[in-house]
Design goal:
alpha+beta; four-stranded mixed β-sheet; about 10% strand; Gluconate 2-dehydrogenase subunit 3 family protein; TAT_signal; single chain
Amino acid sequence: MVTIHEGRPGLSRRELLKRGSIGALLVIAGNAVISPENAWGLETAALKPETMATLIQMARDIYPHDQLADKFYAVAVKSHDEQAGKDAKHKELIEAGIADLDKRAGTGGYRGLGWEEERVAVLKAIETTPFFQAVRGGLVVGLYNQKEIWPVFGYEGESYSKGGYVSRGFDDIEWL
């Protein structure tokens, strides 16, 4: 994921060519993370927009689904911004966790790492921390409870309102 931030005017031609099509271009403007290519944006209230952009990349690296757009990961991590607005301890946990993640990643920070394998190695080093567990735990619900992505995984949703599973293919398992 390429990000323009920290007052820089934009990507140089060299940087754009070097990064190629690694991921979607996310632009940080004011207190928002914007994807002009895919026409969506995420406004932040409590966390820094750079933090949210890193959380989006982190979410994609923890639960990688190439067929899902970044906007679904943005929706999944938005709850951390909302919780940080209500709970100063949570805000400190997330901001300090991202700062630590960027420090561990070296120059350019976590989002500056060009390869998924490099980012995953950094994540493995922190997977037992409360920060990582908070982000991972929030993603389980935040990502997979989005009805818009259920068809991507072949999940039709709950069946009670449709008469249950028994009459809807429960017994058509041919591999058993």
